[in-house]
Amino acid sequence: MTRPLRVLCVGGHPADTFDSAGGTLAHHVRNGDEVTVVALTAGTRIHDVVISDTLRFEDRIPDSAELTALMAERAEVKADEVRRACGMLGITDVRFFGYDDAVLTLREELILRMASLIREIRPDVVVTHHPNELGEYGNHHAMTAQLVLNGIGAAHGVGMGDPNPPHRVAQVFFTCTALIMPSNTLAGQLHWYPDLIVDITDVVEAKVAALDTMRSQQYGGNYARKTIEMVDGAMGSVGGVAYGEGFMTYQPEVTLLFPVSEWQLQRASES
Questions:
Q1: Which of 120, 140, 196, 249 fits 12 for a cystine, CB–CB 3.0-4.6 Å?
Q2: Beta strand ranges found along 79-204 (DSSP E)
Q3: Cβ of 45: how many Cβ atoms within 10 Å?
């Protein structure tokens, strides 16, 4: 590359901006590439210890005005956690769409806003969830990926009122974290195979520290360590490294030669 690579990572919830690909994004930051992460929803209804956990044990839910104020307060708490977490990985361009996570569907307004964001950032690479994750239905991650893919398609054309010209994304990578172990019948029918594993062993401590900041959804402490050990450790074992992040490429890569990595050649010569 004669210029820095532009990478855009879109997650359904605040922590999704880094928990599945944070190590890889940290590598790109270190490489001098431009990294932007975006959270589609505030994640307060299902990923906040006060709203999604404490309130379910109360006798009544606060009225709409009080609940709206509480959700806005908790959304800012979560946003602050994500900014600090991403900062530990070297990521400084952190953005929030701020959509309510009550019901997430393929809406034209969201697709057009995503297309406008893509025209603005002009990413070479987009990283997001798998569009069929966990069986797709009722899953914010899958819907986020579908919104992103539709936004990428819309960004190919001009946008009404958008001063930024059309833009084409070179490659999309789907994260594989939630595909490792199916949690329902529909998820069990999905084809799962990461065709790219990034060795994140050198930055795994920073990723644990980043997850540790997400106290609003009880990711700190033992959870942060357990999930990295279980998920990134399992993904790493597939590729023969200590810790890895797995991805599925959306489009086939095109090269003039067989793309055999230095790691594969080294591994083939080992005991």
A1: 140
A2: 93-99, 125-128, 171-175, 196-199
A3: 18
CA 191, CA 42: separation in Å to the nearest integer?
Answer: 30
Q: Is 171 helix (H, G, I), strand (E, B) or coil?
A: strand
Closest to 177 (Cα-Cα) out of 215, 137, 202, 207: 207
Which long-range contacts link 149-154 to residues 24+ away (Cβ below 8 Å)? 149/250, 150/106, 150/111, 150/114, 151/110, 151/111, 151/112, 151/113, 151/114, 151/115, 151/117, 151/118, 152/114, 152/115, 152/118, 152/126, 154/111, 154/112, 154/114, 154/115
Q: What's the predicted TM-score (pTM) here?
A: 0.92
- Torsion angle of C-alpha atoms 158, 163, 169, 174, degrees rounded to 10: -100
- DSSP character string of 97-132: EEE-SS-----HHHHHHHHHHHHHH--SEEEE--TT
In sequence order, the β-bridge partners of residue 145 are: none
Summarize pLDDT for 18-51 with one digit per residue, the tens: 999 999 999 999 999 999 999 999 888 888 888 8
Cross-strand bridge partners of residue 41 = 99
In this structure, what token pair is assigned to residue 36?
């932007």
Tokens of 193: 């195979």
